[in-house]
Amino acid sequence: MRTVDVIARKRAGEELSAAEIDSLVSGYARGEVPDYQMSAWLMAACLRGLTGAETAALTSAIVSSGRVIDWTGRLSNVVDKHSSGGVGDKTSLVVVPMVAALGVPVAKMSGRGLGFTGGTLDKLESIPGLRVRLSIAEMQTQVERIGLAIVAQSAELAPADGKLYALRDATATVDYLPLIASSIMGKKIAGGAQGIVLDVKAGDGAFMTEVENARALAGCMLELGRRAGRRVRAVVSSMESPLGYAVGNSLEVAEALATLRGQGPADLLELCLVLGSQMLVLAGATRDEEEARRSLKGALASGAALGKLRQLVAAQGGQTAVVDDPGLLPRSPVVHTVAAPRGGFVARLSARAVAETVRHLGGGRARKEDDIDRSVGVVLLAKPDAAVEKGQPLCVVHAADLPAAEGATSSLLAAFDIAPEPPRIGPLVIDQIG
Ligand code: URA
Questions:
Q1: 175-193, pLDDT tens digit by residue?
Q2: Known catalytic residues?
Q3: N or C: which end of the chain has fewer CB atoms below 10 A?
Q4: What is the 343 CA–ligand 1 centroid distance (Å)?
């Protein structure tokens, strides 16, 4: 079949067969279908839609573009987690070592920053020397030896997703439910984990701004996971304002380390406890979520979770000194404080605007081949509900130079809505499904 005909059929709104989707995706993964044809198809899919059957076929095509890890005979109850993408979302850096510290193996396949959202791989690579490109054999040996690994897709594992992910980021085809669901579940199924916990974000800083759409995304991914014979649970969590206080790669690693040391922000810790509990329950390691929360808090308090992260950093070639001294992470030359233009309550803080500011500072990509500056970002000092006085610091910008810091200041001021009355704030965890 000719690729141009598959594109034309999708552009006309027709339903493609599984064979057509597989030929397109496998051809793209092999480098036989060029970026411009895949981009055209992605845009047609976003505009004309993909059916449930097409989404399932796309997921299978992503899975079979590489190998599927088989843990049989090596480890049982391997778990994985994935977020649909948010702002300041460094939960994986905290929850993966917490769960692994309790003896449950975690084999995590992560992504890079996508659209305005951050990516775990970009964050982890702030640690000098750390490698995220591991072969399947290396990853399996590492998980068997120390109980955890966080890796990227490779030529071996869901390679089609690696290429599609970068292409979608540069062609405005990220925020379409079937593409997100197949991208996430394609990777997760290929990673071979028997238990998968999905953190589906809803709100201004998420691809799904409406809770109902986030629930639909969760439902679609649960279905794809079950069809593949995996145990899957989903948490729908709020992404109205950034999670924690730090946004930007190195800054987020520093905040994750503080959280593992018991000094992290309350919202980040709470989400990690919820996701970690689901992972432990799925693995059958604890009777219920209450016992799981107690165990997770114990792993933090004893330092076992921080110790697991240190082991991961060492195993993946990173500088372990960073774990004890986050001051060794890349640092920006310019640090600039943004002050409140008036007094009142922070009524709203747009996660999206903060993320776009960090992207403009160089912390995210505009084109798929762009390098990023891991040192830049924003540390918030006030989040919704905080009372602030005129002139009080609202946040701190970390930038490469003064003009960049000044540009960020005006967009950050627009991101804060300061009102005379305190706001009504919705729950962080909106729903738990499955
Ligand atoms: N995370 C992914 O892995 N893929 C997407 O498409 C969005 C978030």
A1: 999 999 999 999 999 999 9
A2: 82, 161, 168, 183, 187
A3: N
A4: 39
